[in-house]
Design brief:
Blueprint lengths: L11 H25 L7 H57 L4 H18 L9 H19 L6 H29 L4 H21 L4 H24 L12 H7 L1
Helix pairs in contact: 1-6, 1-7, 2-3, 2-5, 2-6, 2-7, 2-8, 3-4, 3-8, 4-5, 6-7
């Protein structure tokens, strides 16, 4: 049997709060350590050595952060394009069936029901989570439509060409749908997030160690920690484009359904 399951998504807000807490804790640890250390540990030559280490950590953290943002954004854009193309392919498939002849009217109605079921499955925020059986039935609906198309008996060369074109479009739509459900099962590697968060916390600890102890500096550092936490939020949300707050719109498929 075929099992279609969705892994529980990572919560972007929770990740952002954890990130802000860890980075802020690093800042506080640096500020406290700066008060406890003997004065000769914070002389100019010592500060220069700490700044070199902080620069290396900053470079690596910026590199990984940029790669994660770029990867998440690319994944989001690719899925958005796939949804848009699916909507266009559904419209074209319906028009080809209409041009084939009136005998395809039941197939067109089943195609409409299949698109509606796919929307209900992939954009089910206001519904209870679908079961494995419901997921399977939704995704085999397109296969049943293709089976009906294969059973058509073309009476002319033009009808045969239309039948082949409809089949090709149907297979492309079906492939896109399986990519969507597989995408919903994948998650961002937590190791990357843990390592990045560790680097950022250590980096802010060095900032706190070297920074003057005044309200302006502390406020700016905490604002920076909040900005980095929001970056982590964007990475998590865009890495799962079919779930979460930043989710791909169902507009193209709904337009095709209309």
């Amino acid at each position: 049997s075929l099992v279609v399951q969705s892994m529980p998504p990572m919560n972007g807000i929770v990740i952002a709060l954890i990130s802000a807490g860890c980075i802020a804790s690093g800042t506080v640890a640096g500020l406290v350590l700066g008060r406890w250390l003997p004065a000769h540990h914070l002389r100019d030559d010592s500060k220069d050595a700490v700044k070199v280490a902080a620069g290396m950590i900053s470079m690596m953290a910026a590199l990984v952060l940029g790669l994660l943002v770029s990867s998440a954004k690319g994944n989001f854009d690719a899925m958005n394009v796939a949804i848009t193309q699916s909507g266009a392919k559904v419209i074209l498939m319906d028009r080809l069936l209409a041009n084939y002849g009136p005998e395809t009217q039941p197939i067109r109605e089943d195609l409409c029901a299949t698109v509606a079921a796919g929307i209900a499955l992939l954009w089910s925020e206001e519904k209870a989570p679908s079961t494995t059986r419901e997921n399977f039935e939704h995704f085999t609906a397109m296969e049943q439509v293709l089976e009906q198309v294969r059973n058509l008996q073309p009476l002319s060369n033009s009808q045969q060409v239309l039948q082949e074109q409809v089949q090709n479009l149907g297979y492309e739509i079906l492939l896109t749908r399986w990519v969507q459900i597989e995408q919903a099962r994948t998650s961002l590697p937590k190791v990357f997030l843990v390592i990045l968060l560790g680097w950022l916390s250590l980096l802010y600890a060095t900032f706190g160690l070297l920074a003057p102890h005044n309200a302006t500096v502390i406020t700016v550092m905490f604002i920076g920690a909040l900005a980095l936490a929001m970056a982590m939020y964007l990475i998590v949300e865009m890495s799962q484009p079919m779930q979460g707050a930043i989710k791909i719109s169902s507009g193209p498929l709904r337009n095709a359904l209309e």
